[in-house]
Amino acid sequence: MACDSEQRVFLREDLAASTEATWRIVYHYPPYVSGDYEVPQMRALGPDLESGGVDLVFNSHTIVYERSHPIRDGRLDVADGIPYIIAGGAGAKPDWFHPKRAWHTAQAQALPHFVHVSIAGPTLELQAVDMDGRVRLAASEEVVTLKDRRRPRQLIASRCVSEILVDHLVWPIVD
Fold first, then answer.
1. 20 to 30 A Cα–Cα from 140, which one of 3, 33, 68, 155?
2. What integer pLDDT is reported at residue 165 of this predicted model?
3. CA-to-CA distance for 68 and 157, rounded, in angstroms?
């Protein structure tokens, strides 16, 4: 996507116009994934998403669940980064991952699932649910504080229990 393309200009203008939005969430092809469907060219949007105050990026195209560590400027950044969520595990046989976990991967499972997102004012809750409807809310094994220019947020990290997908994110806004 060229720097001055109509799509890129639209993205920048739309993010700039949404100053009153509590949450800024975008969706596109995955720039970071542990399988073969990564679209590295999408990484060029990172600076626009970061300067536009995006909180969370949803992706698909890969039939897996994967959550990145917070990323900013193409590197891990737990203080100011954006988590990228791949929620593509419904409707087909799951894809596979490379044997070695990618540098950006915080949680990944190749099994059928869907993602349930609840937003109540300043709190966003994301749950990855397997196809049997099982949701396991992991005890917080790792708590990482994420901060951006607008508000602090907290990521409650995930773990995997046997073959059941486990991931639970909660971002409470602290005023």
1. 33
2. 41
3. 11
